[in-house]
DNA sequence: CAAAAATAGATTGCACACAACTTAATTTTG
DNA sequence: CAAAATTAAGTTGTGTGCAATCTATTTTTG
């Protein structure tokens, strides 16, 4: 007779706690780069993009964030000198976000973060693979928006 | 040669996205109970507690939230008639949070939520068990606070 | 082609989430 | 026992995150 409403039985609560703990583990490393956790995700997206940058729309699709979150976040990143905003010439509605020199340079300082964090998780390679598989499966069955 | 900074390779990003998707899946169900997702977690904690209720501190330990989050959140729940606050008599620093009649009654309306959501995940029982195991392992290796 | 619909981004309002700080009460300690 | 340290909640300030709305620009359609 399972108690379905017990907090310990909620998958969502495990994800909720773990997500917060992850962000807290990143925080000290990111602080030295003057980045918040969501800003770090934006940087990851931009570091792997072309030099023209990404539109706010495509950044939003990649990170699953809407303009209500991204607009002020990108404004802060611009203030901190990490990104530039350019109106697209083909479509005046579109704003292209691209890295500044300083934003590009920051990549070198971030390069070790993923492995450092993976070390702290204590997971084996095979557990990591298995967890990735299960999370992807769940991501694919949970519709976005 | 793995690209460690690629967004697709980040475990944290999978958890980040999935956590948000979960909250969005709960949202419509919780809206009919007039609860937000964090408020739902508070209700789960209170539904399984004794009738004396829980202190803000123990609620915070259970949910991994500090008073900066809980104080205003509990105030809103009190405004909505779900919980009461009582100063403890043994220790005047402690505030006990307990359910109102209406808060207790809400449990009946929430009883089907976990199974409804589990259905939407599309996970098998064995996948659920495996995922729970891996998440717990990760939770136990990631220190809190 | 002009009106209607759709799209991109920004803005507003509300609810977390957390660091840092404050206040009041209790414990510890010299 | 009194001063110092600790503890529990609350407050303040900043940064998300999202729904709803607004504005400007395109695209579609009659």
From TrEMBL, chains A, B:
The keyword DNA repair does not apply. Gene3D superfamilies: Winged helix-like DNA-binding domain superfamily/Winged helix DNA-binding domain. Residues 8-140 form the HTH marR-type domain. PROSITE patterns: HTH_MARR_2. It comes from the Bacteria. InterPro entries: HTH_MarR-typ (IPR000835), MarR/SlyA-like (IPR039422), Transc_reg_Sar_Rot_HTH (IPR055166), WH-like_DNA-bd_sf (IPR036388), WH_DNA-bd_sf (IPR036390). Pfam families: Staph_reg_Sar_Rot. Keywords: Cytoplasm, DNA-binding, Transcription, Transcription regulation. It is found in: Cytoplasm. This is Organic hydroperoxide resistance transcriptional regulator. It comes from Thalassotalea eurytherma. The lineage of its organism: Bacteria, Pseudomonadati, Pseudomonadota, Gammaproteobacteria, Alteromonadales.
């Amino acid at each position: 007779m399972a108690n379905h409403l017990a907090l310990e039985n909620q998958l969502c609560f495990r994800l909720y706690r773990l997500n917060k703990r992850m962000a807290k583990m990143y925080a000290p490393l990111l602080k030295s780069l003057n980045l918040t956790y969501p800003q770090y995700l934006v940087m990851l997206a931009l570091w792997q993009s072309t030099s023209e940058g990404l539109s706010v729309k495509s950044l939003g699709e990649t990170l699953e964030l809407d303009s209500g979150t991204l607009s002020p976040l990108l404004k802060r990143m611009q203030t901190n000198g990490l990104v530039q905003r350019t109106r697209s010439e083909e479509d005046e509605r579109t704003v292209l976000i691209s890295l500044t020199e300083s934003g590009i340079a920051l990549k070198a300082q971030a390069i070790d973060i993923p492995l450092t964090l993976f070390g702290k998780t204590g997971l084996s390679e095979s557990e990591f693979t298995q967890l990735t598989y299960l999370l992807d499966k769940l991501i694919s069955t949970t519709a976005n928006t």
